[in-house]
Amino acid sequence: MTTPSSPSSPPDLPHSRLRSSGGTPIPLIAFAWLWVGAPLCYGLYELVLKAKQLFAG
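and the corresponding structure tokens:
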């Protein structure tokens, strides 16, 4: 006898580990965070350097 699958829990498929719960692939999410996060971190780094020059003399 098999148990019916619940609509709230997706089946445990091999490819389901590469997707978030919403269906977006995890590598795409990681790439999007890098696309936004890398320039943001560089900008903050440059801001700190400029602020040090501004307030230090």
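(Above: one complete record from the training split.) The chain is about 55% helix and 0% strand.
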